[in-house]
Amino acid sequence: MKQTLYRLKEDNSSFPYSCNDGIKVIGGKQTAIQGQNVSFPCTLTEMPATDDISQIFWKRKTGQNPVYSDFFTISPEYGPEPVNAGHDTSRFKFIGSLNETNGSIQLSNVTLLDEGVYSCIFTLFPSGSYRTEIPLTVLVPPVTNLKIKVPVPVVGEDWVTYASCMAAGAKPPAEVTWDTGSSQGALRVVSNSTQHANGTTTTISHLVGTPTRDINHLLVQCVVKQHALATEDTLPFTIEVHYAPLSVNIRETSKDVLECVSDSSPKARYTWSRANQSWPRSGISAEGDVLQLVSPTSDLGGLYVCEASNPYGQKEVSLYVYYATATGGCIACWTVLVFSMIAVAVAVGLALWYYKSKYGVLPWREEVVFQRPPGDDENQGVEEEKVDEEEVRETRS
User: Fold this and answer.
1) Which of 96, 114, 299, 307 would bridge with 102, disulfide CB 3.0–4.6 Å?
2) Are the C-beta atoms of residues 107 and 114 closer than 8 Å to each other?
3) Which CATH superfamily is 244-339 part of?
4) Residues 346-390: pLDDT tens digits?
């Protein structure tokens, strides 16, 4: 049994559609990524042998064409033809076959304005018209970028933003997260989203925290996920925090060559000097963090100072250089003055504390020196002679 229906088109004209239990037009929902191509499948099944295809109409209602209207036709007499397609004429292509009752078309370089509902209508003679609707969803991949804070955060500052990761113009909205490794406790994430009139969304995620030395040079990653992306988009970023030089030390890299090292950000500038003495005219070279004795002699002995400095402060360490004559020439003996003095002071202090706790007094005492008056030496001699005579008498008796 066949029934003919009349439905009003949005242009207020009538268009007949037929219903038949056996004849069907098969299509299906489609999803496309902006900039790619998409096919609209449309196949007629169970067409009676007594019918012929008079024409295939394609209609659409999209963001660019809000009024439901024809835009493409295929007929046995004229073949595929764009209708009211405007600038879209070259983007549509017939990929089906009338002999196989296949009215499929392809749209190239899909845009967000192409999203909407497409209708494929087969007109048969004498049966009538049959249709199917094909919704098209367009996905828009985000435009991602990473903005790093300028100027660089400094230790001692309050809450700061290290970097901002943006996923702009995405449809559907992108998911933006941060991979901060083992330093999650020192960092926080603050995110916000803005939806635009065209249906896309921009998401911005800020990585924030209080600047500390521990997170300087920490590698983090902004991770963006979205349905239009084949794989997640990863944007790496190394956190930089500035602070004054710390833990300045001098180490011997080779014979008669010393290097001054420090923990600082940005990298410290090193300056060498000799305390209470002028800098030797020859025999020594100081370039940056390296001090080298080119021709070691006793004249080069003394207290050397290395100062590490950057825009946020400075710190120095001292080193005493002395020479001892030995077989084979001069031997350079290097001692870090600060640590040596501290070690000696601690050792002496402990020894004195132990001595006093055991004996009750310190290991030294005050002595009173008596000086005899002038002329008293003769009386002393007489007294000594008297004592000797008495001892002799006692012995004889």
Assistant:
1) 96
2) yes
3) Immunoglobulins (2.60.40.10)
4) 555 666 565 556 655 545 443 322 233 344 444 444 344 443 444
Are 3-139 and 244-339 equal in CATH topology? yes
Residue 237 · residue 274 · CB < 8 Å: no
User: Which residue positions in the chain have pLDDT lower than 50?
Assistant: 1-18, 326-340, 343-344, 362, 364-397
pLDDT digits (tens, 9 = 90+) for 266-289: 999 999 999 988 888 888 999 999
Question: How is domain 3-139 classified at the CATH fold level?
Answer: Immunoglobulin-like (2.60.40)
Predicted local distance difference test score (pLDDT) of residue 342 = 53
Question: Where along the chain do its domains lie?
Answer: 3-139, 143-238, 244-339
Question: Is the CB of residue 189 less than 8 Å from the CB of residue 208?
Answer: yes
Tell me what pLDDT residue 364 has: 42
Regarding the domain delimited by 143-238, which CATH topology (the fold level of the hierarchy) does it fall under?
Answer: Immunoglobulin-like (2.60.40)
